Fold these 2 entries.
Entry 1:
Amino acid sequence: MSNNNPIVSVLMPVYNGEKYLKEAIDSVLKQTYNDFEFIIINDGSSDQTETIILSYNDSRIKYVKNKINLGLIKTLNCGIELARGKYIARMDADDIAMLDRFEKQINKFISHSEIQMVNCKCLLLNEKGDKYRKNRTNITVNYQAIKYISIFESMIVHPGIMIETSIMKQFKYRDEPNTAYVEDFELWNRLFANNIRCYTIEEPLIFYRINSESITNTKGHEQKERIKRITQSILKQYDVIIDNKILDLILEDFHHCNYKLLKKMDSDISNFFISLLNKDLVSKAGYNDMVMWKNFKLLFVSIKSLKKISFLNKLEVSAFFIIKMIPRINFKMINRLCN
């Protein structure tokens, strides 16, 4: 390993992360690929975070301590400035990287010289550390499809991404009030708008922890509203208008779900994707992946909404499922729902 010029800079911010921090650090230090520096930034923690970090005697760890709590975006951008590797690998302080994660991501950069980002799948953990399922909505599509699907929902596992450092230094996370809680969603769309290409590895390479203190659980409403504003802003550039109630369904707010809305979701997104194909903005392969995502989302929404809606709407959604979705269901869709 070259200590002066590591290939990878692992970037992990942490704030009061004592509960899961050791697991996260150990999973990085035990990687099969070891040409990396490990930048751990303590964002003004008041618990035992610093004690845990300082208990390690590993030259790859570069410990940085913010004097005060700067917040996630400023801390991430600070880490980007410090990064010396060719690639940045993101890591969160409550997640666990599989031991061959870096090796497999580096190999994809070597075998696919046209890409600048390597995404991966994840397995979800609960607060007790129990693996309970794959992330079913994170389907694998090609780089063209990712660009346009990401307008509606993130296809990127943020703490599992590896990306060229030069790109992150150029773009960084946008530190503005309207990007708080959605800094990754905004960044990915900005990168894709600038033709950055992303490859997704089909297998899970990280355990992603779902906990009660996550942004999704504590700031979920604000997060979804900001995602919708970003989505509508991007769609406006294509002269496309999609009802916010449809965006709610994509973001798993099912309370307004009914036959008419599902039919409109199917039609409006289909028309948008077809317009991209007709303008040669996406290849036929990319378009097919986008249609697969749309059908998967319709199937997912149809099934998941049944627990959240009135009896009358249940009948309508069931009718949509029978009339519109059953003819489209294939083994791949069933497999993604069941695994």
Entry 2:
Amino acid sequence: TKLLQFSLIVFLLLYISLDLSLIGYAYIFTTLVGLLISIYIWKKLAPELSINYHFFNKEKLKEMTATGSWIMINQLGAMFFLYIDLILINIYFGASQTGEYSTVLQWSTVLRSLASVFVGVLGPMIMISYAKNQIDKVIKISTLSVKMMGLLMAIPIGIIAGLAGSLLSVWIGESFANLAPLMWLMILPLTINLAILPLFNVQVALNRVKVPGLFSLFIGIGNLLLSILFIKSLDIGIYSIALASAIMLIIKNFIFTPLYASHILGIEKIFFYKYTVPGFLISFIIFMLLLWIQTMLKLDSWFELIVTSVIIGLLSLVFIWLFALNKEEKTWIKEIVKKKKGKK
């Protein structure tokens, strides 16, 4: 559904209109499609399951509702944070620049969606370990997850940022290549911000979701205020909103989340930060390498972009396997792959 959402938004903005409301319609449509797909999978794989009010345990329902409410507040804060920028750009800069900004924003959305897939794989492992009261294992899985998430996301982040100018030129025209710095500002901070996403599972597993929920809401409001401040005080156009969003995202994800996870696990406050460094370095190396390559080669076709991306991606995977992972981490990856193959 994320791919459908991305494609539909791009199509509507490029070929129908730059009207901001079309993005909302695209979200509604793809959400309904996702719901129908989920119902189909449910009926196909588990037709014996049904929802019946009489089967509900009221005490458990109350407990789950309380937890779910704070998670919902967290998500509302995140949505407010992620999508307020389009509204502000439409108000202060007009529909044309809103279209430009949203086009670049889609690449950030794709990377976030890709990261959420990895989080979905790692989440159950943290939940199960905590349910068994294996706190040491929760910490171990969390640290490995943070490092692996950083390394895995470093490759697409570095490639997309490094090829930003060429990618925009081939995709929507050479006149949009000047938006490459905007893409850098949106995408490069994701290297460290997405790396810590597995730690959100720690909050849920330990049922410590109230403080993150309130903080997420605070960040959403703070992003709105900081964006308006930058718009009025900095003469950098739509970059002011991207800058404000990058700052607030770093505060929320890279500063607050690791510190809070360390606090509720009872470990050293800066414990998780060192596991974000390898991914950041890999992403920066890929980014700089691709910028250097493009000083010698002009990549002006999809074929050239894809071939370059595949080559850099494969070389990066080999480099990560040989130099960025220790023996224990390699064993852990092999075990996960074996389990996934076994389920098939």
